[in-house]
Amino acid sequence: MSIKNNHLTTPEYQENFTDIHPPFETQDAALIEANRCLFCYDPPCMKACPTSINVPKFIKQITTDNIKGSAHTILSSNIMGAGCSKVCPVEKLCEGSCVYNFMHETPISIAKLQRYSTEIAIKNNWQLFKRKPATGKRVAIIGAGPAGLSCAHGLSKEGVDVTIYEKEDKGGGLMTYGIAAYKVTPEFCEAEVNYITSIGGIEIKHNQELGKDISIEELQQKYDAVYLAFGVGLARQLEIPGENLTGVVDAIKFIYELRTNDFSSIKVGDKVAVVGMGMTAIDAATQAKRLGAKEVTLIYRRTQEEMPCTEHELNIAKLDGCAIIWLASPKEVLGKEGKIVQLVCDVMKLGEPDASGRRSPITSGETFTMDVDMLIKAAGQMPFENLVKSNQIENNKGKIKVEDASVTNLKGVFAGGDCVNGGKEVVDAVQAGKDGAAAILNFIFK
Ligand code: SF4
């Protein structure tokens, strides 16, 4: 057993990392699917979308081959509608709410239709939004992720000049750096960011980190308002002995490496354990398998009933051959010559429900030991608590506290997305960016 790169051949890497949700092969296939939509009154699919995309309207526009109109309908509600069509957990949002589910029939492929329209729009660089004349107002945004980009686009449309300060050398945030490579490619992410900024009036300054290269105070002085959208990023530690051994890595770092390097250069073990059962855990597990790990086991301290990932995500992991151990929690990492060789886990059971009705896991007193040469920690992410506190921003354990969806305690400083909610879906961050833009416009033009 050993951690190494180059497990597979180039064609094998290519096959393992192709698009997991292929698009419609022909225009006719899209039309046939669009024509299945019942164009419901008071559509539940639209209500289930955090950005309230008018789903029946954009689908109807596809049926009449009005793709420009369809893309406009989607992007006016969600400027990252193309990316969201690839990464949204639609089975618990729009598609999960489609009335076809109640008829025990396959729901409309809303995401695939959304992708159909928006990809054509991006490919043709259709300029669907006209920027109002410049107002002379200037806003600084920290973070070029979904919340930051959505806020920037909303402000730019109204004639506000936006400068985004981004610590990485590419835009897109979580979309570019934190999601499985078979869901969105780097090329797609770059094209989407370029499409959003092509409205004009948005400048992204890269390799600019808050607290290091820039400060909130400095931005408050230079700009009419500041929007914080720096996300979350620190992996929650397991706090168990042996956690510092070679071969123990955090999922965010693992996925980041994979998204920024050649697949063949990424080191992966033969026997990999992944701790957690959220989307990041699933992405890390499936990608470890697709990089060539022989055995990948997901370990979760509760049962399937409480898992944070969707059924669909779980099925992807199972289809990739990942094993799952429910009701188990890491207790100690054992090593040899500084490298991980075994993982000891507590066998858990669920206790009595608490006030919220949630049953917490407690140890049963039994343990088991498994041979592993890599442990990926995906037990959640933590907000940038020190950064938030050092800037005197009101917060709850590092999560920025806001009023009216995005107003912080600092004058002229607004916030949204993961740094406020602690880490939700991309689509939630896009909506937060829209709310942030509305609050800032209200503030600077009052
Ligand atoms: Fe169409 Fe389903 Fe939405 Fe009804 S619920 S409008 S059938 S996508």
Structure description:
The chain is an alpha/beta fold and 446 residues long. The protein folds into three domains: 89 residues, Alpha-helical ferredoxin (Fumarate Reductase Iron-sulfur Protein, Chain B, domain 2), CATH 1.10.1060; 157 residues, FAD/NAD(P)-binding domain; 146 residues, FAD/NAD(P)-binding domain. 36% of the residues lie in helices and 19% in strands. The protein is built from 18 helices and 17 strands. The strands form five sheets. It has a five-stranded parallel sheet with strand order 3-2-1-4-17, with helices on both faces. It has a five-stranded parallel sheet with strand order 6-13-7-8-9. The longest helix is centred in the C-terminal third of the chain and has 19 residues. The protein is globular and about 65 Å long. It starts with 9 loop residues before the first helix and ends with a helix. The chain binds iron/sulfur cluster.
Key traits:
5-stranded parallel β-sheet, FAD/NAD(P)-binding domain, alpha/beta, single chain, binds iron/sulfur cluster, Fumarate Reductase Iron-sulfur Protein, Chain B, domain 2, 19% strand, 3 domains
Could you provide a short overview of the structure?
The chain is 36% helix and 19% strand.
Write the layout of secondary structure elements.
Blueprint: H1 10-16, H2 27-34, H3 44-48, H4 55-63, H5 67-77, H6 81-87, H7 94-97, H8 110-123, E1 138-142, H9 146-157, E2 161-165, H10 174-177, H11 186-197, E3 202-205, H12 216-222, E4 225-228, E5 234-235, E6 248-250, H13 251-260, E7 271-275, H14 279-290, E8 295-299, H15 311-319, E9 323-325, E10 328-336, E11 339-353, E12 359-371, E13 374-377, E14 381-382, H16 385-390, E15 395-396, E16 399-400, E17 413-415, H17 418-421, H18 426-444
Parallel strand pairs: 1-2, 1-4, 2-3, 4-17, 6-13, 7-8, 7-13, 8-9
Antiparallel strand pairs: 5-14, 10-11, 11-12, 15-16
Helix pairs in contact: 2-4, 4-5, 4-8, 5-8, 6-8, 9-18, 13-14, 14-15
Bound molecules: iron/sulfur cluster (SF4).
